[in-house]
Amino acid sequence: MEKIITVFGSSQIKPSELHYKKAEEIGKILAENKFTICSGGYGGIMQAVSKGAKSVNGKTIGITLDKSNRTPNEYLDENVIMPNWVERLMELIAIGDAYIIFKGGSGTLVELSSLVEMMNKKIMKEKNMIFYTNFWKNAINIIKNESPSLNKVIEKRVFFISKVQEISNLLKKI
Q: pTM of this prediction?
């Protein structure tokens, strides 16, 4: 059975930046462990994880927008085109068996907030969320302290890693 990891993160990260290189390494590790990588399909972190996966013949899926002014990255095996931003977000969430979240801006914040809230409200089953670096730690702590049910979801399902190699142990939990 195919396992899919959805990756969220900044589209603004450039190939010369450290986070791009780390996302590429993580994409490679995921593919080597037989996970399909799903992302928003454009540049930055989305491109980096897809590029890493393709470097070892992994499978990649992009969830992009119809009538977007952006071009999907060249490392996608499959491009699922959604009619609007909300449906794209819901598909990115629905397709994942787990999630990896990199640093990002307001779009990534919306994605991770949606994940936590959908699990909290039992709209979807609880799934693991792996954060690369502590970039989102303060935001998660704010969400965690909001209610006892959010605290339970986060305590059980949120993991922070600071080294790429740490992901291998967490993949066993998916």
A: 0.94
